[in-house]
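Hi R.,

Here's the chain you asked about this morning:
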Amino acid sequence: MRNRVGNEISYDYDRRFDVLYVSFGIPQESYCEEPEEGFLIRHSLVDGSSSGVTVFEFMRRSREGTLPKIPLPVNIDFGRITRSLRKGPGAT
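And here is the predicted structure, written out as tokens:
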């Protein structure tokens, strides 16, 4: 599943493994830091700028209200993504 959330943020969700991949701009090769277990912030290999986040156990964390409250360089509306995923494929 691939959806758009705003002009510069896109996301993919892997239902089988409950992993959310959020990209800022065009997805690119990146390295990661893990400020909280299961929550990765990706940085571009080219210039070190933030390129996205990866959230393991996304829907479980969303249901339980345990998504991390980590400051991110881009505002991500995780609630909107959760609602879209609950509606099913093709929902925005």
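One quick note: Confidence is low (pLDDT under 50) at residues 1-6.

Cheers,
M.
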